Amino acid sequence: MLEVNDIAVIRGERVVIGGLSFKVGAGEAMVLVGPNGSGKSTLLRVLAGLGRIEAGRVLWDRVDALADRATHGLRVGYVGHQDAVKPGLSASENLGRGAGPALLAVGLSHLADLPARMLSAGQKRRLALARLVLRAAPLWLLDEPTLGVDTANVARFGDMLAAHRAAGGMVIAATHLPLPLPGARELALG
User: Fold this and answer.
1) Helix/strand/coil for 159
2) I need a surface site. Which of 32, 145, 165, 168 has the fewest CB within 10 A?
3) Contact status, residue 118 vs residue 129, Cβ threshold 8 Å
4) Which long-range contacts (CB under 8 A, 24 or more apart) does 111-119 make?
5) How remote is the C-alpha of 156 from its chain's centroid?
6) 79-117: per-residue pLDDT in tens?
7) How far apart are the C-alpha atoms of 30 and 184, rounded to whole Å?
């Protein structure tokens, strides 16, 4: 279980997040909503161990999750705003070992050998999402995961999310668009 207890995050001299607490357990999903600049991406980065909190605690099964960021990183599948796709490598090479099933899961098998620079924005996003399939991370942190993705592939992504949750995985996603996450709780920021 992930537990956030009264955290505060400051950027510059501005409190972006203050006094925030919540829990997410096995099979659960939470959708972060709010206007641009409300702290959704900042919160995801903190939960991924990539940002700093000024106060409060982030716990994993009641232990300080951020005390050992390397171990915490193994528990997290993070897809941020940037797709982190290397344009000179093929779709398959971008994923490395085990690329076949991951490309199949996001509907990109037929483009496995195509250089990533030739992919559309939506295809690059799906390639980034394919990394989630390669990792056995129980917590998926997703920042605008369906941005640029067509309707049919949003539904395919919904299948990935459902399978992850059915296996006890957790999902926290920031979005301005509806996501295929039935039963997800909503946390409004800002």
Assistant:
1) helix
2) 168
3) no
4) 114/90, 115/87, 115/88, 115/89, 115/90, 116/85, 116/86, 116/87, 116/88, 116/89, 116/90, 116/91, 117/87, 117/88, 119/85, 119/91
5) 16
6) 998 888 999 999 999 999 999 999 999 999 999 999 999
7) 5
Distance CA 74, CA 121 (A): 27
DSSP E strand stretches across 25-88: 29-33, 55-60, 63-64, 76-79
- Residue-level length of the chain: 190
38-86 confidence digits (pLDDT tens): 999 999 999 999 999 999 999 999 999 999 999 999 999 999 988 889 9
* Backbone φ and ψ of 35, nearest 5°: -70, 165
Fold classification of 26-48+73-188 is Rossmann fold (3.40.50)
Looking at residue 12, its pLDDT comes to 84
Contacts of 163 (CB under 8 A, 6+ apart): none
88, 103, 156 from 120: Cα distances, Å: 14, 15, 17
* Nearest alpha-carbon partner for 22 in 31, 35, 13, 12: 31
